[in-house]
Design goal:
alpha/beta; 14 strands; about 30% helix
Amino acid sequence: MLFDPVKVGPLTLPNRVVMAPMTRSRAKAGFVPSDLAPTYYTQRASAGLIVTEATQVSPQGIGYVHTPGIYSKAQVEGWKKVTDAVHKAGGRIFLQLWHVGRISNPTLQENNALPVAPSAIAPKGESMTIDYKMTPYVTPRALETHEIAGIVEDFRKGAQNAKDAGFDGVEIHGANGYLIDQFLRDGTNQRTDQYGGSVENRARFLVEVTEAVVSVWGGERVGVRLSPNTNFNDMFDSNPRAIFGHAAKALERFNLAYLHVTRAGPGDDVPGGPIDADFFRPLFRNTIISAAGYSTKEDAEKQLKSGNADAIAFATLFISNPDLPARLKQNAHLAPGDRATFYGGDAKGYIDYPSLEAAVA
């Protein structure tokens, strides 16, 4: 099943092995994709679908050093080199649109401004400064109601820039404790305006962003990623089934290409128990991609055979196994990754992992 074709919007993917979005922190000056990025993504073009690393839609959306953007002409041109190369290799690639919200540091913000969030609640843990030092997260500034429309517009512009850069579609990053997720969950959203309180209000920002992005691409080329289980970035919701069930049903009207949902991982504490793809299957009629923790073909195919997911997203295995679909199909050795080179650096640990053919030559 993993190697059967599957429809995603107007695209027919040759297999159901999706390359998950993974931050690699190798952008060059101006948050422009690295000159090595075309090679990195092209090496992995045999994936049924590539979803790029998270890409900020504005300077305010930056949370980490050397992550790429999609708000300047130079960034668009940098990404165009990637899409041209991937398409030449026969691949398909979506850009993930991102705003980190409170998961940032003033040294990364214009004029050392405070990061923004739905509510002025500091996450536990530490952020990285622009000079690579670790420091406790600051308390973010709560967005004024009138400011939210501007961020929605940033997502729309990012979607248009992604289209201009030649992508096949875009994925809205609504997961992992970043801005959209911060609006969704009551552990981070204590607003009293139309963006807080009820599940309808807390999902409003996600719906507005989706509407804006769909206005550029049409729903059939837009995906949304949600993480109902994760506590990453100090996230919590008192009733995740209520908010994520409402969000999934609210997204239905856009006829999206897919819903990309992450499974529970070690350490995730989910009220009511973990939420898997089977929760979303009755709520969302189009393609569902299941992600997080898949390390074997057997685990992936078990999920597919359940009928609750249509494709499986692999993350770190794609870093060290650029031709992962072929390796899985042949039951070949899966090379381990070097975690010391996952974030930042140069070609080492980025484009120097050999293909299966090269490894056995």
